[in-house]
Design brief:
The chain is α+β, with helices and mostly antiparallel strands. The protein has helices spanning 2-7, 33-42, 50-72, 85-96, 166-177, 194-201, 209-220, 251-268, 271-277, 360-377, 384-389, 391-395, 413-422, 427-430, 434-441, 448-467, 484-500, 502-509; strands at 12-27, 76-78, 101-118, 125-142, 146-153, 160-165, 181-184, 187-191, 234-248, 290-297, 300-307, 310-317, 321-328, 335-342, 345-352, 398-400, 403-405, 471-473, 480-482. α15 (434-441) crosses α16 (448-467) and α17 (484-500) crosses α18. The radius of gyration is 28 Å and the shape is elongated.
Length: 510
Amino acid sequence: MKRFIDKHQAKITGTISCFDRILFKGHLPLGWPEAMEQFIARQGLRIKDFGTFVARQSELIKQHAKAMADRTARPYLYLTGPVRKEERVRAIAERDQIAEGLVCILAAVEACQSFKIAHGQRRPKIVSARRKCLCFYFYFVDRELGLMHVRIASWFPFTTQVCLNGHDWLARKMDQCGIAYRKQDNAFCWIDDPWRAQRLANRFAKKKWPRTLTALARRVNPLMKNLLKGMDYYWVTEQAELATDLMFRSPAALAGLYENLLKHATHCFGAEDVMTFLGRKLNGNFAGEIGNHYRKRWPGARIRHRMKNNGIKMYDKHGSVLRVETVINRPYEFKVWRSGIRHGEQVMGWYPMAKRVSNLPRYAEVSLAANRRYLDALTAVEDPTEARHGLPALARPIRKNHRSYRGFNPAATDDIRLFAATMRGEHAINGFRNQDIRCRLFKPTTAEWERTRQSARVSRLLKRLHVHGLIAKIPRSRRWRLTQKGHTLMSTVLIIHGEYYPRIHRSQVA
C-alpha cells in the first residue's frame, strides 16, 4: 500500500482503514434439539405442549416491541414486501431529527432457524427446522455506535443479530477527540489528522464486544429477565468488512486513475491473484469457487473478487474516495494463533479461525493485509498516455555486449502469454523462477530432454525481458522480479489487448 500511496501522494490527502459494515450474531444455549427438549422439561411441560408454549413467548416479544414503540412515541411498521430498510430508516431519522435513541421498529415475516415437532420412537421429538416467523428490527442511533439495528426472531431459540458500521463509531470517537473531518454517507472525504484517526480506528477490534452486545440484546428480549434468566448469548462475527479508504484531493484527481485501475483489475487479476491477496495459495487441495465480478452502479463501477464466501471489492465513494474492502463471511479459510490439540497434546499453533468475537483483531489483521496486497498490485497502473509512449521503444531491438536482442510485439500471441505469465499475482511477493514461467508457457512433459529444451528457451526469454529493463534479478537467488517499467508497460499491453480483443485475450492468458 505504501508504494501505491507514494506513487500518487500528490493527489492523496490521507488514508484510513477501519471496519465498515459488521454483523454480529448471538446464540442462546438452546440452539439444538436436545437442549430445547431439556428446557421444555425444566418448565414442567411435555413435548406436545411445545407449540402452544412457543406461541405464547412469541406474543410476549411482539407486545414488548409495540410497548417500546408506544413508550418512546416512535413508529412501529409492519413490512409486507421487500424494502430497503436502512434507506427508509435514515429518511425517518432525518425527518424527525433523531440524534440519539430509538428511530423505529420494523416487523417482517422472515425465515429463521427454529424447531418443530416430529414423530419419534414411542413419543414425539423436537427437531431443527427452517421456518418463517415474525422478526423485529429495532433501529437505534446509539451515542457510541451511531445508526445500528438489533434484529430478533420471535421464535425459539431467539437468535439475535446486531448490525453496525465502523465508520459511524469512528466519527463519534473523532468528535470526542476534537478531530475535524468531512463525512458523506459511510465514507470520510477528508480528515484533519489521519494518523490520530487511524489510532482510534485500531481500537474497534479490541473493544469488549460481548458486554456491549449482550446489553443490546437485553433491551429487545424481555424474556431475559425471567424465563431465560441466567442464560447468556454466545456472540460470533457473522460478517465483517474492513475498508481501506484513500482520500483524493478532488473527483478529477481520481476519475482518470480509477478507470485505469478498473481495467487493470478486470484484465490482469486472475484466480491465483485473488488467492494471493487473501494470503492463500491455489493448489490441488483447494475446493471452492473463485471469480471476478464487474458491475456498473450509480455513480460509478465496482469490481469484486470472490474466493468462496470471502472476497475483495474496489469502488469509488462519492467520486473522491478510492475504497478497497475485504469481506470475510467464512473465517475458517484463514489461520489464527491459538491453543489446539496436536498428536494428543495441547499446544499453541496456527489453526483455522473461528467466528467467535474474540478473533475480531485477527479479522482486522487478515483484511488489512489483503487490502495492502491489492493496492500494491495496483501500483503498476499508470497514466495510459505516459505508458503508451514507452510501447514503441519496447518493440525496437536492443544491442548489448555485441549481441542483438529483438523487441516485443504487443500484438503477438507468444509475447502476450509471456507478459501474462510474469505478471501473475503469486509472483508479487517472492518473485518468479524459470520453472514458474515454463509451467505457464508449455504443456507438462515427463521427458527430461523436453524439459531441458523448454527451460533453455525460457532462459532466453527472461534474458530478453531483462535487457529491455522489464525484469530484474533478485540478489543471491534464482528468482526474478518485475521492475516499475515492466509493471507499467506489460500491464498496459495486457489492458489494451484485453479491452479490444477480449476473447483472444482470455484464451491466451489461460
